[in-house]
Design a protein that fits this description.
There is one protein chain. The protein is globular. It folds into 2 domains: about 180 residues, FAD/NAD(P)-binding domain, CATH 3.50.50.60; about 140 residues, 2-Layer Sandwich (D-Amino Acid Oxidase, Chain A, domain 2). Helix 1 packs parallel to helix 6 and helix 1 packs across helix 8. By secondary structure, it is an alpha+beta fold. The protein contains 9 helices and 19 strands.
Length: about 375
């Protein structure tokens, strides 16, 4: 079997589904290929935080991309609901960043200063203000950064709704169909072969997350995406204990409307091993109790793990492949795939349709990993 499309999207996580939706909305005939089910990997394993300021250490292109990504969501979710009649749960209730030591408090105080100067809404709040916002936090909590614009959503819902919206516009989404390899002609990618057949296209978009490297055209031109395991667990308290994201160096708490509190997350270079481990879950539970001691009586409901697509510099990989015409990368989002899903899709669609983007992608280009190799290939 062989079929022809304007674009082939490889990967059915939140990035792939968002890209398929934006492309199809722009009139590009799309097929999306997913080796399992939609959103089964890191897109469903995440906590759904839209929190670019919580970890930002400087005002740079990455932070600006993240801020643009977060700003899209209110209207973006309304658009998806109008399209599908499905609502994605989301809450812009803010985030408290709690230091675990005086040394960390000094680091956060400096972060407060530069973010304030950069025009970001941020407050350095007192113990009394902490008690007013979150009375069930550890009583000895003395300082916190309050970021009122940070938000969270149901990431599994978002991925499913994006796939539904893409289908409603005419995208063909094929689950349980694994991509084997790209179809190559000289230095051009003409599509991909899968376990079912061949798909020819003018543009191929790799949004395969941690599995991207496995389908790169050649080893010497591969994109360095590596799996980074994140373990999480969920607790359920008898009554609501927190109403905002609580974030610390050792872990975070994310409340959900169903009464669960998500506790995350580890960062582990464990290959493609998705097991939960006793030691990691113990550390997560301890981090949760350090933040909110009343969680000691909460019910343990579940634990899971996902594989984030990491990169050597922790930045996403966005833009045309430096070696292969017709191939675009939208991968390597590490811990920010949910946050960057909408803006990645928008910029990728601009690149396919217009050949340029409204936000500069140089800092995230695949070129940055292949400068020397690319120079050698062009001087032969």
């Amino acid at each position: 079997m062989s079929k022809r499309f304007d674009a082939v999207v490889v990967g059915g996580g939140v990035i792939g589904c968002a890209v398929a939706y934006e492309l199809q909305k722009a009139g590009v005939k799309v097929v999306l290929l997913e080796r399992g089910t939609i959103g089964q990997e890191s897109s469903s394993a995440a906590a759904g935080m839209l929190a670019p300021n919580a970890e930002a250490d400087q005002d740079d292109e990455f932070l600006r991309l993240c801020l643009k990504g977060r700003a899209l969501f209110p209207r973006y979710l309304e658009e998806l609901e109008e399209r599908t009649s499905q609502r994605v749960e989301w809450h812009q209730s803010g985030l408290l960043r709690v230091p675990g030591s005086e040394e960390e408090a000094s680091v956060l105080a400096r972060r407060y200063q530069w973010q304030k100067e950069a025009g970001i809404r941020i407050q350095w709040i007192s113990p009394e203000e902490i008690r007013e916002l979150e009375p069930h936090l550890k009583p000895t909590t003395r300082h916190a950064l309050y970021l009122p614009d940070e938000a969270n959503l149901d990431n599994a819902q978002l991925t499913r709704v994006l796939a539904l919206a893409a289908r409603s516009r005419g995208a063909e989404i094929r689950e349980h169909e694994e991509v084997r390899a790209p179809i190559l002609d000289q230095r051009r990618v003409l599509g991909v072969t899968s376990t079912v057949g061949a798909y020819y296209s003018g543009t191929t978009i790799y949004a395969a997350g941690a599995w991207t490297t496995r389908i790169c055209p050649t080893e010497e031109t591969s994109i360095p995406v590596i799996p980074v395991r994140g373990q999480m667990l969920a607790l359920r308290a008898e009554h609501p204990l927190i109403s905002r994201i609580i974030y610390s160096r050792d872990g975070y708490l994310v409340p959900r409307s169903n009464g669960e509190i998500l506790v995350g997350a580890t960062v582990e270079w464990a290959g493609f091993d998705k097991r939960n481990t006793a030691g990691a879950l113990e550390r997560l539970l301890q981090a949760a109790l350090n933040l909110a001691p009343e969680l000691e009586s909460a019910t343990f409901t579940r634990a899971w793990a996902g594989l984030r697509p990491g990169t050597p510099d922790t930045l996403p990989i966005l833009g045309p492949d430096p070696f292969w015409q017709g191939l675009i990368h939208a991968t390597g989002h590490y811990r920010n795939g949910i946050l960057l899903s909408g803006i990645t899709a928008k910029l990728t669609a601009e690149l396919v349709v217009q050949g340029r983007t409204s936000f500069p992608l140089e800092a995230f280009s695949p070129d940055r990993f292949h400068v020397s190799a690319k120079t050698q290939s062009t001087t032969r």
